Amino acid sequence: MIKALFLLVLMHTCYSMSSQSQSLAFEFTLGNQPLEIGVKTYSKSLKDSLQIDAFRFYISSVTLFNGKDSVHSLKQTHFLIDAEKKETTKLRFSTAKEFNRISFQIGVDSTTNSTGAHGGDLDPMKGMYWSWQSGYINLKLEGSSALCPTRKNEFQFHLGGYSYPNNSLTEVSLKMPKGKEKFILIPLDSFFKEIDLPFLYSVMSPGEDATQLLKIIGDSISSER
Fold first, then answer.
1. pLDDT in the model for residue 16
2. How far apart are CA 107 and CA 79, in angstroms?
3. Which residues contact 147 (CB under 8 A, 6 or more apart)?
4. 18, 67, 116, 186: which could form a disulfide with 96 (CB 3.0–4.6 Å)?
5. Beta-strand relationship, 90-95 and 181-187
6. What pLDDT digit, counting tens, does each position of 174-196 carry?
7. How many CB atoms are located within 10 Å of the residue 113 CB?
């Protein structure tokens, strides 16, 4: 018994020593520069000045791969990434295995949605839960642009939905470069290039628009700075 316990402790120590601390940092840009919440920024590619007042979203099911083989899954199932709160934009974890690809989902899965409100990053107090819809907002993007024919030129995109045919959960898979610190870049210029703000400036409930807009965000994500 003592010998078996000793071997177990030894194995755990060896694994801990071989595990390496890694980080995954989310970065956001607008006008080819780091996104500043609440600051009007001119985008040459959009020929427009935009102000982003809120940009936050859920990621879930984070899995690391080496080739086709899954080598590590993050224990926490859902993370709320908030561009205004820098402490939420970097995920830290330890793994003893090399990986060259990562997959995750933008949003909250249907099983979690159908079991009501939860705690932690999924706490409704985070402002990402529709009480009337009994479901989570997968991504929230708010701001203003002179192109929007609304009061104070505001746009609001609260994107969610987990029921067929409007399940907006979005899959992302990226090749990752070598190094202990990995980056995931979301260029908001790419998103606004794909929509017509004078006509599409508010999506506040599940539906085809929400699903398509989340796909645009997912397609724009890269692992290169």
1. 44
2. 9
3. 48, 153, 197, 198
4. 18
5. unpaired
6. 999 887 778 999 999 999 999 99
7. 25
What pTM was computed for the model? 0.88
* Helix, strand or coil, per DSSP, at residue 157: strand
Report the C-alpha gap between 154 and 146 in whole angstroms: 8
Backbone φ and ψ for 191, nearest 5 degrees, come out as -65, -50
By three-state DSSP, how is residue 216 classified? helix
Q: Which residues of the chain have pLDDT under 70?
A: 1-18
Residue 173 in contact with residue 100, Cβ under 8 Å?
A: no
Structure tokens at 223: 């692992």
CA-based nearest residue to 133, from 58, 215, 207, 77: 207
Q: Show the tokens assigned to 41.
A: 């920024």
Asked whether 108 and 60 are in contact (CB, 8 A), the reply is: yes
Q: Which two tokens stand for residue 185?
A: 């870049």
The sign one gets for the Cα dihedral 12, 14, 18, 20 is positive
Instruction: Give residue 12's pLDDT.
Output: 47
CB 78 within 8 A of CB 34: no
Apex CA 216: angle with CA 88 and CA 144, to 5°? 70
214: three-class secondary structure by DSSP:
helix
pLDDT at position 8, please?
46
pLDDT in the model for residue 7: 44
DSSP 49-117: EEEEEEEEEEEEEEEEEETTEEEEE-S--EEEEETT-GGGSEEEEEESS--SEEEEEES--HHHHHT--
